[in-house]
Fold each of these.
Amino acid sequence: MLLTIGLNHKTAPVDIRERLAFGPDIIVAALRGVHEQAGVDESVILSTCNRTEIYCAADEDGCSRVEAWFTDFHGLEARQVKPYLYRHCDTDAVHHLMSVACGLDSLVLGEPQILGQVKAAWQTSCSAKACGKLLDRLFQHTFTVAKQVRTDTAIGSSPVSIAFAAVTLAKQIFANLEEQTALLIGAGETIELAARHLHQQGIRHMIIANRTLEKARKLAQQFDGYAIGLTEISAHLAEADIVISSTASPLPILGKGAVESALKKRKHRPMFMVDIAVPRDIETEVGSLRDIYLYSVDDLHEVIQENMKSREQAAEEATEIIEQQVNSYLGWMKSLDAVSLIHSFRSAAEHDRDEVLQRALRQLRNGRDADEVLQFLAHTLTNRLLHIPSTTLREAGSNGKTEILEAANTLFQLKQ
């Protein structure tokens, strides 16, 4: 069976999500851990700031073990986690993945970044040899569906995203962004999108901070900014009117003390901060400081709601596409049941063919007339292939098993 176990922004607050996240440094070990559970054949782990989900191909016992492993891996008790978890099986699991990849289950309806995150999760699983036939086909089919939704609907027509919402909030606090300085911590897709939106709003001063300086420089060059390492943040924090942070750090990058020092240097001019990361990059205590406006990903929900009305009709159209494509994938899954039967049927027929052919060849080598040998080959092979079906049909007729007769009529496409 197919299984999805997880939690997201709808079912769990950020402090629970960050405790159950799988960072890039532990994701491969986590995949191995899932595979150590008896009854689990395949797995993919998707972990973002808004969701953590485990996709599995497993038997019923394996599914139960994965749920228990999920909490154990993070050092939590089942009672602490269970209220926030959802579980989808088979059809529901397929539908859920397609909805996630198309952005229909995101905090920002139709946001495009999630598709790249789903692809990255699949690629990681493939590299770790955790993705097999069922999940590989499911994820590749899902990517095709997501592309169709983007092409055939207007789901991505409006610039609505976490990054867009963050910049919208900044505009509400600072009337003129052109005169402000932004410090962006991280260099991933979300930070790049935030930089692009800020640049479009005319902001002139942008600082990109990242653990890998070269990556920060590459991003900063696109928007006329300059790059610094994470260790240099304290020296530049006082310059920043706007701070947007999204890294994969397991520990906070900005603490209360560093921000207090920056405020003193700024003579308490206000600072706007958005912490998009899970686990959080900015200590929650920072939000208690005067002249600090600190928002988490959960706080952006209201802003986002105002900007996604235009996507609602497109979402309905996307749902119709997903419904059709769920059936397509499930049809393929069902066809797998017939594969082994077809293989066995063909193997038996080929065995009979080879045996009768060898007998015919021996007759030719012994000097028997070729026409007689051909007659023998055709007659014997036909009898071999039809004996068991004919016997079974005869018995079905005698016992009144009309469903077998009807199935045979459909199978062999006979005209009565």
Note: The chain has 16 helices and ten strands.
Amino acid sequence: MQIIKPDINLDFVGKRKAALIFSAVLILIGLISLVVKGGPNYGIDFSGGTLVQMKFQEKTSAGDIKKALQGLDLGNVVVQQFGDDPREFLVRAQETSTELKGLSIQISHALEEVYGSEKVEVRRAEMVGPQVGKDLRKKGLLAIVYAMIGILVYITWRFEFRFAVGAILALIHDVLITLGVFSLFGKEIDLPIIAAFLAIIGYSLNDTIIVYDRIRENRGKYGGKGFAEVVNRSINETLSRTIMTSGTTLLVVLALFLFGGGVIHNFAFALLVGVVVGTYSSIYVASPLLIFWEDRKKPGQVPVKRNA
């Protein structure tokens, strides 16, 4: 099934410089947000601390809950609504020690004194030590780095080194933009989000490989027409497949984001951003980077111009 004819001739490579500027602006905005906010907003998995998920029988507010917990020696406490249910909240205490293992019981008793007996339900309690959180953060970063190195080796073996560099830069582009969006929206980075980043890398790479494979095939057919035209033709020929794959994936991820509940909300949000950015980078980043590489090798070559 093809929703776009393979002989369509849109000028993607002609917009590569504008796309490069657009991507640079998005990455810069994300980096500025990270600097202003002092780095990513790490969740309990990476920052360490104690988290308790509570559900109340009646509606309340984060301020009232925090006021009810003032009698407990919990250090810096953050209370926030969990998901769309106005009766469900998360209580986070960044100070973690062995004495806080009974934190859920302490919090439950303190809240029952204010809201009434059996009016508060503890749905989840987690505790991560600061050293464990630091170790998990390091391992999560290493997982992404190792994935990038493996991809670099694989694409160099299957195609050429310049193809591998283009793919890696496109993947770094996708991760940086997704991380920047998380910073702008104040969303937490935890272990499920690292899994989402790896899924984004895999999804974006798959789309890039399809285009690269067509470029390699078309170089033998149309090599005399110039490399820029070969790249543009390849993107156009795989455009129908790209739109159908991305469209169906987005429908599933959007359903997870809207109806999956608070537990996987951030994970689905990361995938939602990643699929859109990954599709964009396969067309406007990964493949056009090959042309920049080619132009650098042949500085005297005049770029091929075409009408959109």
Note: Confidence is low (pLDDT under 50) at residues 300-308.
